[in-house]
Amino acid sequence: MSLLVEIPVFDENLFEKIYLMGLSFDALESIRFPSLTVDCPRDYLNRSDMKLPSGTYFGDRAEALSVGRYQLTWHRYPPKERLPAHVHTHPYLSVAVSGKYQECFSANKEMQVNPMQVLLRPSGYRHANTFGKEAGWCFNLDWEGKFPDWMPELFSLDQPKNWEVSPWELTLLMHASIMDFAEDELNLLADEAMIGLGKYAHTNRYTEKVTSMLEYLHGRYAEPCSLEEMGLTLKVHPVYLSRIFKRVMGMTIGQYLRRLRITKSWGDLWGNESLTGIAHDRGFCDQAHYSKTFKNLLGQTPSQARKKMRKLE
Q1: Going by C-beta distance under 8 Å and a sequence separation of 6 or more, which residues neighbour residue 307?
Q2: Given 37, 110, 140, 142, which is the most exposed site by the fewest CB atoms within 10 A?
């Protein structure tokens, strides 16, 4: 099966040269490069890769913040946007906050990236992307230099990794980045987000039972969940489940479930669904319950958060 794509025809090191010349990448928006439309199989990934330096991405950049060793950026992508094969010269984290896209990373391999899914990509990782029918929003986090000695080696940076849903620490960072938090607060939240991701990167720190509990919660978070029902499903006494979960995860099952529901709903706010609909879809009994939980965890109501999100458009 072939795929109709547009591949820009220019020097593969163009982005590096522009970066070294000190020119703004945003200035490229007004330039129209010659392009070649080809009907080709997915081996178009074998073409020369575009090399993007740290902090540089395709898409319309809506916000960029430099915080300590980190760079936080927000990018928007039109519906059905296609990004040609490229690599990044530095490792980075990306969250598909809103909208879905396909990532093609070899001639015959691709994966679907869903809202609030997190991707860790090492430097030199070759990939191309195609967005769906809805516009997409992505949050990207880059870093420079080594992490401090007190921060353990969180994950290997030579292989790509995926998280099904953003850990709570990363959700807090994304929320703070659009809420005008001070630089020192954002820097602390970024460190905590990296540590949070590191916890989820090492699956061997979880027992088989806790892993099963997480899978259960992620699969049924929008439904009424009871400890007794979970115990029956997993064939483990509910009291034991509660104790081992808190010991390993550092929070109760109820606390984790509320944070999971709010994280999922946070991505929904970038779209146009009503707050009542979001509350229902994410497991809250009504909008009032949803708004109260949201404010208790994030400090603002969903309506206030949505207004901030709209200002980035």
Answers
A1: none
A2: 37
pLDDT of 269 > 80? The answer is yes
User: What single-letter amino acid sits at 298?
Assistant: L
Instruction: Choose among 93, 83, 258: nearest CA to 177.
Output: 93
Q: Which residues contact 228 (CB under 8 A, 6 or more apart)?
A: 238
What secondary structure does DSSP assign to 163-182, as a single string? Answer: ESS--HHHHHHHHHHTTT--
Indicate the SS3 state at residue 15: helix
Read off the pLDDT of residues 120-142 as tens digits, 9 standing for 90 and up: 888 888 889 999 999 999 999 98
Which DSSP category does 224 fall into? -
Count other C-beta atoms under 10 Å from residue 40's C-beta: 13
Token reading at 144: 């420079």
In the structure encoding, which two tokens stand for residue 79, read together? 């519906």
- Rounded to 5°, the CA angle 119-123-128 comes to 60
Q: Which residues pair with 163 in a beta bridge?
A: 118
User: What whole-number distance in Å separates Cα of residue 136 and Cα of residue 77?
Assistant: 5
Least confident of 17-26, 103-112, 228-237: 17-26
In this predicted structure, the answer to whether residue 45 has a pLDDT above a threshold of 50 is no
φ, ψ (nearest 5 deg) of residue 81: -65, 135
What global pTM score does this model have? 0.79
In this structure, what are the phi and psi dihedrals at residue 75, rounded to the nearest 5 degrees? -130, 145
Closest residue by Cα to residue 46 from 127, 130, 123: 127
CB burial of 59-72 (b: ≥16 within 10 Å; e: otherwise) equals: bbbeeeeebeebbb
The SS3 of residue 124 is coil
Other CB atoms within a 10 A radius of the CB of residue 303 amount to: 11
